Amino acid sequence: MTISADHTAPGSAPGSAPDQAQPRPAENAVTEAVRKFGITVEDYMLPARHQIQMVDPEGRLLAEGEQGTEPGHEYPLPGDEELLAAYEQLVVGRRVNDQNSALVRQGRMAVYPSSHGQEACQVAAALCLAEGDWLFPTYRDAVAVMTRGVDPVQTMTIFRGDWHSGYDPAKHKVGIQCTPLTTQLLHAVGVAHAAKLRGEDTVVMAMCGDGATSEGDFHEALNFAAVFHLPVIFFVQNNKYAISVPLAHQSVAPSLAHKAVGYGMAGERVDGNDVVALLAVLDRAVALARGGSGPLLVEANTYRMQAHTNADDATRYRQDSEVAEWLAKDPVARMRTYLTGRGLLDDDGDSRIAAHAEAVATQLREGLGEDVPVDPQELFRHVFSEPTPQLKEQAAMLADELARDASSGEASK
Amino acid sequence: MSPTVTTSSEANGNVSAATARAAASAASAAEASGPQSVTMAKALNTALADAMHADPSVLVFGEDVGQLGGVFRITDGLTRTFGEQRCFDTPLAESGIVGMAVGMAMNGMRPVVEMQFDAFAYPAFQQIVSHVAKMHNRTKGALKLPMVIRVPYAGGIGGVEHHCDSSESYYAHTAGLKVFTPATVADSYRMLREAIDSDDPVMFMEPKKLYWSKDMVDLEDLRSAHSANRKVGTSSEGRAAVARSGTDATLIAYGPSVPTALAAAAAAAEEGRSLEVIDVRSIVPFDDETVCASVRKTGRAVVIAEAHGFASVSSEIVARVQERCFHHLAAPIRRVTGFDVPYPAPKLEHYYLPGVDRILDAVDNLQWED
Lengths: 413, 370
What we know:
The complex is a heterodimer of chains A (413) and B (370). Chain A is of the alpha/beta class and 413 residues long. Chain A starts with 26 loop residues before the first helix and ends with a helix. Chain A has a five-stranded parallel beta sheet, with helices on both faces. In chain A, strands 4-5 form a two-stranded antiparallel sheet. Chain A has two domains: 27-369, Thiamin diphosphate (ThDP)-binding fold, Pyr/PP domains (Rossmann fold); 378-406. Chain A has helices spanning 27-37, 41-45, 80-105, 119-127, 142-147, 152-160, 169-172, 183-197, 216-227, 260-263, 275-290, 320-327, 331-341, 347-369, 378-381, 389-411; strands at 134-136, 204-209, 232-238, 241-242, 245-246, 266-271, 296-301. Chain B has 370 residues and is α/β, with parallel strands linked by helices. Chain B folds into two domains: 15-232, Rossmann fold (3-Layer(aba) Sandwich), CATH 3.40.50.970; 241-364, Rossmann fold. In chain B, the strands form three sheets. Chain B has a seven-stranded mixed beta sheet, sandwiched between helices. The radius of gyration of chain B is 20 Å and the shape is globular. Chains A and B meet through helix 7, helix 8 and helix 9 of A and helix 4, helix 5 and helix 6 of B.
């Protein structure tokens, strides 16, 4: 993932718009990298020797030579406006994570797999996309779903327990939060493939975690995307644990980003707690994919600060000292320090953003605190487009049972 | 009405080569007007082509379905006619095929995918059960998933292991999947067109031993009837068929067992017993009305299926019929199914498969003396 996003395909006139309907040969991006940077195909596909980091944990912008970039692996600093928008979403995301964890403790939500500590990944994965693009999230990516514009309460419906998903995936171009690991990556591939066949320039962001890379569908999705040369960004949040099992038990690859070369695609790794670097890398990835590079793999090096869910006890498998080490790398505090230091954020701005986050938290408290009556007849309505005779029979049986319960309840009063 | 089974269950280890040779000539038969001798393979191939002509969002993909035309030649000529963007080979990965189809169906396409053989579909099970069957439900009806998963299934072709499974019960047990299985040449055309038209996902189970069965059908008539039905919104989806009328007992069969049931009914007629044969056609949704009307009329029933009997479609049919027809029954409903053993090696499959004699024995045991 290396070359400038505005490269033109060999043979096309300079300045002419790329013809999205015509699939470009897979070799173009590679050929271009080899020509422009004088690097080998392997150096194009393999990640840079170091992860890409732009702002260090203390909030300091690193000198260009220290950002981990190399010839062909170069990333420009995102614009100020984009960085401020990202910071605002980081603060909102953190507040949402903590609000939801509180709602679980209060019994207002059944479960919440928090992305506390991973908010930079969540925000960047959504903000790098254009309007017509799609996002395929996992169960831990609620903040990414919200950042993409889905209503917060609708986003959390799955965890409140009144239905499996509360939003329309087609309307928002956001897949439903997926629990069976990496199965959604293939749906991402299919959405991208359909769009490509229609000549649309849709890019698809496909999210998964480090443990998920062991699944067979991870392999099948990356291979299909590469073979069909589809604009899919596979974005792996390496948060170090699959519930209790550390990464070392999942893979002994040099890094997860190194897996890209096996599929003939380019990979990169990035500091997953540095939203500046994440935006730089993902913006470039999206531009490359839209320009015909084929799929890309990005590994974000981050950490799951809390237990898998409220039902999990993380003290059984990891040390407090490890958690403390990552606390010092917090993505939200780092960005606040950086933006304040740059003079882009002052106390007023920060207060306004905090008030926005609080408003979203209030919306969640009120929305999830509301008792939404469930309709038992809904059980039968969405199995098929039209209920089968058998489902109609069963619906009538349940209605009758409920009517009898209601009348015996009346009678006993 | 009854298809002629032209392939015997000779022990033949090389399924692909044998099937390829047999179906190649069938699929290349020229189409002419009026009733012609048509194989099931040709009817399915024609249905795919017609659906692709009718709707540019219909795509066909899977393993070897492109240049080769499928190991059974069901997709023969589709790449040539419609191009590599409409009918194409995928990497060899069934979960990938079905998972990609889910994404395509979410994004405006109507994919029709081929699982090369019944037992090769199992890697896709997770996608089928967790996503194909549930997407409409999980999104509270917001998303429809119009896709068809074609599965050449069941035995009787002398195939080596993993090529002859009757896997329909796995899918029928999964809420949210329609499960169709044609037994005649005409039905294979009609039902595949209806499966592709359906806004719900359909497991389309093709009895592979019937691919080369022939019948006199007029494909142009079938095509016009399909168009006419679509215009007025009628369909035979979900309806069983009375494959042979009779009065003494009902044989209930589907897919590969229908010709066997018809042969048994013909043999019984020579002995003076009149058997009605019901071709279930649609396992999900199930046509209780047609099946039960027949059993109420005859008062006796035998359910026939190649699949293992235990916890199967055949056990479901028995349960449904006895719940609904108990007071019309003169005898317990009997079943003739595959034994509860892994599908046998070619030289043993003859012992496993429901045959005419075993069906007639079951009919003999329906308490006629009372």
